[in-house]
Protein backbone atom coordinates (compact mmCIF):
# COMPACT_ATOMS: atom_id res chain seq x y z
CA UNK A 1 0.00 0.00 0.00
CA UNK A 2 1.19 3.50 -0.74
CA UNK A 3 1.62 5.83 2.24
CA UNK A 4 -1.30 7.95 3.40
CA UNK A 5 -0.92 11.46 2.03
CA UNK A 6 -1.72 14.31 4.42
CA UNK A 7 -2.23 17.69 2.75
CA UNK A 8 -2.30 20.84 4.85
CA UNK A 9 -4.17 23.81 3.38
CA UNK A 10 -2.40 26.98 4.51
CA UNK A 11 -4.53 30.08 5.09
CA UNK A 12 -3.12 33.59 5.69
CA UNK A 13 -2.38 34.40 9.35
CA UNK A 14 -2.57 30.75 10.34
CA UNK A 15 -1.41 29.82 13.82
CA UNK A 16 1.90 27.98 13.68
CA UNK A 17 0.94 25.45 16.34
CA UNK A 18 -2.33 24.65 14.53
CA UNK A 19 -0.11 23.50 11.68
CA UNK A 20 3.09 22.37 13.39
CA UNK A 21 1.39 20.19 16.02
CA UNK A 22 -0.43 17.79 13.70
CA UNK A 23 2.35 18.00 11.07
CA UNK A 24 4.82 16.86 13.73
CA UNK A 25 2.59 13.91 14.59
CA UNK A 26 2.37 12.68 11.01
CA UNK A 27 6.04 13.26 10.17
CA UNK A 28 7.13 11.53 13.38
CA UNK A 29 4.84 8.62 12.54
CA UNK A 30 6.49 8.45 9.13
CA UNK A 31 9.95 8.44 10.76
CA UNK A 32 8.83 5.29 12.57
CA UNK A 33 7.82 3.70 9.29
CA UNK A 34 4.05 4.08 9.59
CA UNK A 35 3.72 5.50 6.10
CA UNK A 36 2.64 9.14 5.89
CA UNK A 37 3.57 11.72 3.26
CA UNK A 38 2.99 15.34 4.26
CA UNK A 39 2.61 18.23 1.84
CA UNK A 40 1.43 21.83 2.00
CA UNK A 41 -0.73 23.78 -0.46
CA UNK A 42 -1.92 27.38 -0.50
CA UNK A 43 -3.43 29.92 -2.84
CA UNK A 44 -0.16 31.88 -2.88
CA UNK A 45 3.41 30.66 -2.64
CA UNK A 46 4.16 32.54 0.58
CA UNK A 47 1.82 32.66 3.57
CA UNK A 48 2.10 35.09 6.47
CA UNK A 49 1.48 33.46 9.85
CA UNK A 50 -0.06 34.98 12.98
CA UNK A 51 3.32 34.62 14.70
CA UNK A 52 5.19 36.49 11.96
CA UNK A 53 7.09 33.55 10.42
CA UNK A 54 6.44 33.35 6.66
CA UNK A 55 5.79 29.93 5.14
CA UNK A 56 6.12 28.66 1.59
CA UNK A 57 3.70 26.18 0.04
CA UNK A 58 2.87 24.51 -3.25
CA UNK A 59 0.21 25.98 -5.50
CA UNK A 60 -0.67 22.63 -7.10
CA UNK A 61 -2.54 19.95 -5.19
CA UNK A 62 -1.07 16.44 -5.21
CA UNK A 63 -3.17 13.57 -6.49
CA UNK A 64 -5.34 12.27 -3.65
CA UNK A 65 -7.02 8.95 -2.98
CA UNK A 66 -9.74 7.85 -0.61
CA UNK A 67 -7.22 6.93 2.10
CA UNK A 68 -5.77 10.44 2.13
CA UNK A 69 -6.47 13.35 4.47
CA UNK A 70 -6.79 17.11 3.94
CA UNK A 71 -6.30 19.32 7.02
CA UNK A 72 -7.14 23.03 7.36
CA UNK A 73 -5.29 24.60 10.32
CA UNK A 74 -6.82 27.62 12.03
CA UNK A 75 -5.83 31.26 11.81
CA UNK A 76 -5.97 34.26 14.11
CA UNK A 77 -9.64 35.08 14.35
CA UNK A 78 -11.05 36.89 17.38
CA UNK A 79 -13.95 37.44 14.99
CA UNK A 80 -14.52 35.49 11.81
CA UNK A 81 -14.45 37.37 8.54
CA UNK A 82 -17.69 37.54 6.54
CA UNK A 83 -15.60 36.50 3.52
CA UNK A 84 -14.53 32.89 2.83
CA UNK A 85 -11.03 32.10 4.13
CA UNK A 86 -10.28 30.11 0.95
CA UNK A 87 -11.28 30.69 -2.65
CA UNK A 88 -13.83 28.78 -4.73
CA UNK A 89 -11.30 26.37 -6.26
CA UNK A 90 -9.97 25.26 -2.88
CA UNK A 91 -13.52 24.94 -1.53
CA UNK A 92 -14.39 22.69 -4.48
CA UNK A 93 -11.25 20.64 -3.83
CA UNK A 94 -12.24 20.05 -0.22
CA UNK A 95 -15.78 19.07 -1.11
CA UNK A 96 -14.70 16.83 -4.00
CA UNK A 97 -12.11 14.99 -1.91
CA UNK A 98 -14.71 14.18 0.73
CA UNK A 99 -17.34 13.27 -1.88
CA UNK A 100 -14.86 10.81 -3.41
CA UNK A 101 -14.46 9.02 -0.07
CA UNK A 102 -11.54 10.93 1.45
CA UNK A 103 -11.29 12.53 4.88
CA UNK A 104 -11.06 16.22 5.78
CA UNK A 105 -10.11 17.77 9.10
CA UNK A 106 -9.76 21.16 10.73
CA UNK A 107 -8.09 22.74 13.72
CA UNK A 108 -9.71 25.67 15.54
CA UNK A 109 -11.12 28.24 13.08
CA UNK A 110 -10.28 25.90 10.20
CA UNK A 111 -13.82 24.60 10.71
CA UNK A 112 -15.02 27.78 9.03
CA UNK A 113 -13.27 26.72 5.81
CA UNK A 114 -15.02 23.35 5.97
CA UNK A 115 -18.31 25.16 6.51
CA UNK A 116 -17.80 27.38 3.47
CA UNK A 117 -17.05 24.19 1.48
CA UNK A 118 -20.43 22.76 2.50
CA UNK A 119 -18.96 20.01 4.66
CA UNK A 120 -20.54 20.88 8.01
CA UNK A 121 -24.20 20.80 7.03
CA UNK A 122 -26.00 17.96 8.78
CA UNK A 123 -22.86 16.96 10.69
CA UNK A 124 -21.54 17.33 14.22
CA UNK A 125 -18.48 19.54 14.61
CA UNK A 126 -16.47 21.44 17.18
CA UNK A 127 -14.09 24.39 17.28
CA UNK A 128 -12.30 26.67 19.74
CA UNK A 129 -14.57 27.61 22.64
CA UNK A 130 -14.35 31.31 21.73
CA UNK A 131 -15.83 30.61 18.26
CA UNK A 132 -18.63 28.15 19.05
CA UNK A 133 -21.46 30.68 19.18
CA UNK A 134 -20.35 32.43 16.01
CA UNK A 135 -19.96 29.23 13.99
CA UNK A 136 -23.20 27.77 15.38
CA UNK A 137 -25.02 30.86 14.08
CA UNK A 138 -23.18 30.81 10.75
CA UNK A 139 -23.95 27.13 10.08
CA UNK A 140 -27.41 26.48 11.55
CA UNK A 141 -27.76 23.20 9.64
CA UNK A 142 -24.70 21.82 11.44
CA UNK A 143 -24.64 20.55 15.02
CA UNK A 144 -22.07 22.28 17.22
CA UNK A 145 -20.56 20.14 19.98
CA UNK A 146 -19.26 22.42 22.69
CA UNK A 147 -16.26 22.02 24.96
CA UNK A 148 -14.74 18.85 23.53
CA UNK A 149 -11.33 18.29 21.94
CA UNK A 150 -12.39 16.78 18.63
CA UNK A 151 -15.40 15.34 16.83
CA UNK A 152 -15.54 12.87 13.93
CA UNK A 153 -18.65 12.62 11.76
CA UNK A 154 -18.67 10.89 8.36
CA UNK A 155 -14.99 11.52 7.61
CA UNK A 156 -15.21 15.17 8.69
CA UNK A 157 -12.99 15.56 11.75
CA UNK A 158 -12.94 18.89 13.56
CA UNK A 159 -10.90 19.86 16.60
CA UNK A 160 -10.83 22.64 19.16
CA UNK A 161 -8.18 25.30 19.58
CA UNK A 162 -4.51 25.20 18.65
CA UNK A 163 -2.89 22.39 20.71
CA UNK A 164 -5.90 20.11 20.21
CA UNK A 165 -4.64 19.55 16.67
CA UNK A 166 -2.06 17.23 18.24
CA UNK A 167 -4.85 15.24 19.89
CA UNK A 168 -6.73 15.04 16.60
CA UNK A 169 -3.65 13.84 14.70
CA UNK A 170 -2.76 11.23 17.35
CA UNK A 171 -6.35 9.98 17.19
CA UNK A 172 -6.10 9.60 13.41
CA UNK A 173 -2.79 7.74 13.74
CA UNK A 174 -4.42 5.43 16.29
CA UNK A 175 -7.35 4.78 13.96
CA UNK A 176 -5.17 4.28 10.90
CA UNK A 177 -2.10 2.56 12.36
CA UNK A 178 -3.17 1.35 15.79
CA UNK A 179 -3.04 2.57 19.39
CA UNK A 180 0.53 1.36 19.82
CA UNK A 181 1.67 3.55 16.91
CA UNK A 182 -0.06 6.60 18.38
CA UNK A 183 1.42 5.92 21.81
CA UNK A 184 4.88 5.60 20.30
CA UNK A 185 4.53 8.92 18.48
CA UNK A 186 3.16 10.65 21.61
CA UNK A 187 6.10 9.35 23.66
CA UNK A 188 8.60 10.58 21.07
CA UNK A 189 6.92 14.01 21.10
CA UNK A 190 6.94 14.07 24.93
CA UNK A 191 3.17 14.48 24.94
CA UNK A 192 1.87 13.95 28.48
CA UNK A 193 -1.13 11.87 27.42
CA UNK A 194 -3.17 11.09 24.33
CA UNK A 195 -6.53 12.64 25.17
CA UNK A 196 -9.92 11.35 24.12
CA UNK A 197 -12.06 13.55 21.90
CA UNK A 198 -14.78 14.09 24.46
CA UNK A 199 -12.44 15.50 27.10
CA UNK A 200 -13.08 19.14 27.93
CA UNK A 201 -11.16 21.90 26.15
CA UNK A 202 -10.33 23.68 29.39
CA UNK A 203 -9.10 21.83 32.46
CA UNK A 204 -10.50 22.66 35.89
CA UNK A 205 -7.13 24.26 36.66
CA UNK A 206 -7.69 26.76 33.83
CA UNK A 207 -11.42 27.31 34.27
CA UNK A 208 -11.00 28.66 37.80
CA UNK A 209 -7.84 30.71 37.34
CA UNK A 210 -9.33 33.83 35.73
CA UNK A 211 -9.21 35.91 38.92
CA UNK A 212 -6.77 38.38 40.48
CA UNK A 213 -6.46 37.01 44.01
CA UNK A 214 -2.82 36.19 44.77
CA UNK A 215 -3.83 34.27 47.88
CA UNK A 216 -6.33 32.11 45.99
CA UNK A 217 -3.74 31.40 43.29
CA UNK A 218 -1.24 30.28 45.93
CA UNK A 219 -3.79 27.94 47.47
CA UNK A 220 -4.64 26.58 44.04
CA UNK A 221 -0.94 25.92 43.42
CA UNK A 222 -0.89 23.72 46.52
CA UNK A 223 -4.09 21.88 45.61
CA UNK A 224 -3.04 21.43 41.96
CA UNK A 225 0.21 19.78 43.05
CA UNK A 226 -1.34 17.61 45.79
CA UNK A 227 -4.95 17.05 44.73
CA UNK A 228 -4.72 13.30 45.52
CA UNK A 229 -3.63 13.96 49.13
CA UNK A 230 -5.68 14.79 52.20
CA UNK A 231 -5.57 18.58 52.45
CA UNK A 232 -7.23 19.77 55.68
CA UNK A 233 -8.34 23.38 55.58
CA UNK A 234 -6.12 24.02 58.61
CA UNK A 235 -3.02 22.98 56.66
CA UNK A 236 -3.96 25.08 53.61
CA UNK A 237 -4.59 28.14 55.78
CA UNK A 238 -1.26 27.64 57.53
CA UNK A 239 0.62 27.45 54.24
CA UNK A 240 -0.67 30.85 53.11
CA UNK A 241 -0.67 32.47 56.55
CA UNK A 242 -4.36 33.28 57.06
CA UNK A 243 -7.22 31.93 59.15
CA UNK A 244 -9.45 29.16 57.85
CA UNK A 245 -12.39 31.58 57.70
CA UNK A 246 -10.40 34.16 55.71
CA UNK A 247 -9.08 31.48 53.35
CA UNK A 248 -12.55 30.12 52.64
CA UNK A 249 -14.01 33.60 52.13
CA UNK A 250 -11.29 34.81 49.74
CA UNK A 251 -10.98 31.52 47.84
CA UNK A 252 -14.74 31.21 47.32
CA UNK A 253 -15.07 34.84 46.20
CA UNK A 254 -12.24 34.38 43.68
CA UNK A 255 -13.11 30.97 42.23
CA UNK A 256 -16.78 30.40 43.05
CA UNK A 257 -15.79 27.20 44.85
CA UNK A 258 -14.66 26.12 48.28
CA UNK A 259 -11.14 24.65 48.46
CA UNK A 260 -12.64 21.18 48.98
CA UNK A 261 -14.94 21.49 45.97
CA UNK A 262 -12.01 22.67 43.83
CA UNK A 263 -9.97 19.65 44.93
CA UNK A 264 -12.90 17.35 44.14
CA UNK A 265 -13.16 18.81 40.63
CA UNK A 266 -9.48 18.11 39.99
CA UNK A 267 -9.88 14.56 41.26
CA UNK A 268 -13.00 14.01 39.17
CA UNK A 269 -11.38 15.37 36.01
CA UNK A 270 -8.31 13.16 36.41
CA UNK A 271 -10.47 10.13 37.22
CA UNK A 272 -12.57 10.69 34.09
CA UNK A 273 -9.39 10.78 32.03
CA UNK A 274 -8.22 7.48 33.53
CA UNK A 275 -11.61 5.83 33.03
CA UNK A 276 -11.70 7.04 29.44
CA UNK A 277 -8.42 5.19 28.88
CA UNK A 278 -9.65 1.90 30.29
CA UNK A 279 -9.05 2.17 34.03
CA UNK A 280 -11.81 0.79 36.25
CA UNK A 281 -13.82 3.21 38.39
CA UNK A 282 -12.43 1.59 41.55
CA UNK A 283 -8.81 1.91 40.43
CA UNK A 284 -9.32 5.48 39.22
CA UNK A 285 -10.89 6.43 42.53
CA UNK A 286 -7.89 5.13 44.48
CA UNK A 287 -5.41 6.79 42.13
CA UNK A 288 -6.91 10.26 42.55
CA UNK A 289 -7.20 10.00 46.32
CA UNK A 290 -10.71 8.73 47.14
CA UNK A 291 -10.85 6.01 49.80
CA UNK A 292 -13.32 4.06 47.67
CA UNK A 293 -15.36 4.48 44.51
CA UNK A 294 -18.62 5.62 46.16
CA UNK A 295 -17.69 9.31 46.32
CA UNK A 296 -16.37 9.22 42.75
CA UNK A 297 -19.62 7.67 41.52
CA UNK A 298 -21.63 10.35 43.34
CA UNK A 299 -19.55 13.14 41.84
CA UNK A 300 -19.80 11.64 38.37
CA UNK A 301 -23.55 11.39 38.77
CA UNK A 302 -23.83 15.06 39.76
CA UNK A 303 -21.65 16.13 36.82
CA UNK A 304 -23.90 14.30 34.33
CA UNK A 305 -27.09 15.99 35.54
Write a structural description.
By secondary structure, the protein is an alpha/beta fold. The protein folds into two domains: 185 residues, Class I glutamine amidotransferase (GATase) domain (Rossmann fold, 3-Layer(aba) Sandwich), CATH 3.40.50.880; 101 residues, Homeodomain-like (Arc Repressor Mutant, subunit A, Orthogonal Bundle). The protein is built from 13 helices and ten strands. The strands form three sheets. It has a six-stranded mixed sheet with strand order 2-1-5-6-10-9, sandwiched between helices. It has a two-stranded antiparallel sheet with strand order 3-4. Helix 8 packs across helix 9. The longest helix has 18 residues. The radius of gyration is 22 Å and the shape is elongated. The mean pLDDT is 90.
What's a quick, concise take on this entry?
With 305 residues, the chain is α/β, with parallel strands linked by helices.
What is the alpha-carbon Rg in Å? 22 Å
Shape: elongated
Give the helix proportion (percent range): 40-55%
Would you identify the regions where 5 or more consecutive residues have pLDDT less than 50?
none
CATH superfamily of the largest domain: Class I glutamine amidotransferase (GATase) domain
Strand order of the largest sheet: 2-1-5-6-10-9
Percent strand equals 5-15%
Distance between the termini: 47 Å
CATH class of the largest domain: Alpha Beta
Number of strands: 10
User: How is the main sheet built?
Assistant: 6 strands, mixed
Instruction: Spell out the helices and strands N to C.
Output: EHEEEEHEHEHEEEHHHHHHHHH
Structural class label: alpha/beta
Helix tally? 13
Could you name the CATH topology of the largest domain?
Rossmann fold
Structurally, how many domains make up the residues?
A: 2
Mean pLDDT comes to: 90
Amino acid sequence: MRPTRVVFVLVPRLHLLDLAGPAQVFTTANDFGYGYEVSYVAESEEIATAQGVPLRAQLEWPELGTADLVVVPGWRSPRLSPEPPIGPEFRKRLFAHHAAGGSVASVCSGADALGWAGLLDGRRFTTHHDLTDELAARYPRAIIVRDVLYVEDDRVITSAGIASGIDLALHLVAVGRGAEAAARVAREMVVYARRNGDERQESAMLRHRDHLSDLAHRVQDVIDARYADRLPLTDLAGQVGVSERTLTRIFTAATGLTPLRYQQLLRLERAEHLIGHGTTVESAARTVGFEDARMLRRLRGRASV
